[in-house]
Amino acid sequence: MAYNLFIYDDNDRLRHTLEALLTEASGFVVKTSFGNCDHAIEQIRENYPDLIIMDINMPGMGGINGVTLIKELFPEIKIVMHTVFEDDEKIFNSLCAGADGYLLKSTNPLKFVQSLHELMEGGASMSPFIAQRVLHFFRESKKVNHQFSLTKRELEVLTWLVKGHSYKMIAGECSVTIDTVKKHLQNIYHKLHVSCATEAVAKAIMHKIILLD
């Protein structure tokens, strides 16, 4: 079964490219696309999507404000920011608005599709560069917060997740199966009182749960 998605981007050429890339064969179906998100709420109510790909700079409301509005009414819809912007302010404003992921437009097409699938399966969708920017922002803090009682292995898995690794990559780094990684993540979510990878990453950073180099 393919996931239904919307695209909001004022670049017509890019929208058409994404529509061609995200076909049913890729596991997605582009239900519709728009050059701005000014009427996103009405559009969502008419044709409910599982996932939204959102640009930041668009005429009218703009992507970050669009995410805030959509998440207030439809918190279960996944939203990925798809942008050229790499600066800290836009990254953190997007994540604080409720975005579930942040992918650069320079991301390899195959990696882009893979990242969307991992997001829909509960993972974190974030370009490696963006993950590094998040880490760098908090690099001054080196104190580990032990209040959540994570095991050594859970801390290791969480650290790789914060660094933007996929389930497969984490499994390779930890020399375990992907199913084992998923089980560890379920335990981590339970202990952190979160429901998805993006929330886990945010909490790990905000509460200084992991030790940053």
UniProtKB/TrEMBL annotation:
Q: Which UniProt keywords apply?
A: DNA-binding, Phosphoprotein
Q: Where is the Response regulatory domain?
A: 4-120
The record's section on InterPro entries has:
CheY-like_superfamily, NreC/VraR/RcsB-like_REC, Sig_transdc_resp-reg_C-effctor, Sig_transdc_resp-reg_receiver, Tscrpt_reg_LuxR_C, WalR-like
Pfam families, per the entry: GerE (PF00196), Response_reg (PF00072)
Q: Which residues form the signal peptide?
A: none
SMART domains on file: HTH_LUXR, REC
Its GO biological process terms?
phosphorelay signal transduction system; regulation of DNA-templated transcription
Any one GO MF annotation of this record? DNA binding
The record, for CDD domains, names: LuxR_C_like (cd06170), REC_NarL-like (cd17535)
> What top-level branch of life does the organism fall under?
Bacteria
Q: Which residues carry this modification: 4-aspartylphosphate?
A: D55
The UniProt record lists the HTH luxR-type domain at 143-208
The family database entries (PANTHER family) matched by this protein are listed as: TWO-COMPONENT RESPONSE REGULATOR
Official protein name in the record: DNA-binding response regulator, NarL/FixJ family, contains REC and HTH domains
